[in-house]
Amino acid sequence: MFVERGYDATTMDDVCVETGLAKGTLYHYFSSKTELRAALRDNFCNMILNRVKSRISLCESDDFFTRIDLLVETAVESYLDTPELRDVIFFSGDTPLRSVAVNDGLVGYISDLLSQGTLEGAWCVDDPHALSTLIYYSIHAIADDALMSGARRPRSAVRVSKLVAITPD
Hints:
Layout: H1 2-5, H2 12-19, H3 23-29, H4 33-56, H5 64-81, H6 83-91, H7 100-103, H8 105-119, H9 128-148, H10 160-163
């Protein structure tokens, strides 16, 4: 509904009519449209994270370069598969994108992967959280670049391991 009508044009009454929920029931779970969108965003982010984890689980556990590349590739593909929903969740209403990363499990997952790779000697990352935040926003930027160019796929394969020299000291 948010995708079809737009976030700003959709009211809680519209949600009640579309879902068949009583207004009291809807407000019992979500006190506002902003809170409802936050729940949608959490579910969407968990879906992306689960896709990433599933794809990475097929890799050798010590193949960190392939794992980080697949993480980025899978996240970008996932965002590009649902651009309208992604726009509603991340770019509409009153919640700026900068507040989303705080609650998105993907940032923590990236940070854990970077930390694990550092411990295993695959690379040397002094601040995994800072780099994971950079990678997270780069994923969004790569998806936006593809969408703004009219494509549904990135211009080329995204390989973090080729873009950034993350090697041991």
